[in-house]
């Protein structure tokens, strides 16, 4: 899925995330406890745990910080090259950090001066333990990378299928509009066919994403068709943030909602009404919403026909953005609002 093919989805995950750092600290501490419980000539479990924990936590955080800084560059390499570079880098940090600990402990008098053989043994032991742990961690990264790659392929196929389910629904509604105009005003019917042709030429593109401006252009073409049929009964209020126009959004994420707002909300009202379309930037999100009037009595039964398009869009948002996306429905006695929250990529 082209929305997700970026460095953050590469072989090296986002180790800058707070939750990832928390899990790292927790796992390192559990490992420190296991190492402290191993038989040793040194006495005192808590003293060994404190020293091992201090060393392991700092080593883990330094390695994670380095991978975090180099993540974008590493993820541009081939997977094997990325893994080998990461492995070598972490081993190098382990050697340097072990040597630094030996020097610092002797400098401040925590331990007496050890012979050269003992220092080499300490460094090699840390290198061996680190090599095993780093190998397991990189294997875990690879399994996660493969899982994400497979999920991207499946998600792309599902998005295409969901879009295909929306298009026939829109086509049937538009053809009904044109059919109602043929015997009333042939010129308007011809104009509607041209608008429909332009609209489908754009909506049948293979891209799963486009800019918000492209999505609004689709909506304007659709509304032009509906204006021919509803005339004065249809009114549209736009509330748009110009800074949001170039932001990428899933294609056909708003147009089906506007279509539902007209067919299931405004059209049953004898006097018609106003549809409000909003696009604003708030709290590091692109907030989109469509609000339409509804009949106070039996409004929910009218909106049951909306569920297919709504569930399709909700599913597509989840596939593309995971739990960071929002899809909220607010039903009031005389108003019906569908809101979408799309996270901005920083």
Automatic annotation (TrEMBL):
<protein>
    <recommendedName>
        <fullName>Signal transduction histidine kinase internal region domain-containing protein</fullName>
    </recommendedName>
</protein>
<dbReference type="GO" id="GO:0000155">
    <property type="term" value="F:phosphorelay sensor kinase activity"/>
</dbReference>
<dbReference type="InterPro" id="IPR010559">
    <property type="entry name" value="Sig_transdc_His_kin_internal"/>
</dbReference>
<feature type="domain" description="Signal transduction histidine kinase internal region">
    <location>
        <begin position="157"/>
        <end position="234"/>
    </location>
</feature>
<dbReference type="InterPro" id="IPR050640">
    <property type="entry name" value="Bact_2-comp_sensor_kinase"/>
</dbReference>
<dbReference type="InterPro" id="IPR036890">
    <property type="entry name" value="HATPase_C_sf"/>
</dbReference>
<dbReference type="GO" id="GO:0016020">
    <property type="term" value="C:membrane"/>
</dbReference>
<dbReference type="Pfam" id="PF06580">
    <property type="entry name" value="His_kinase"/>
</dbReference>
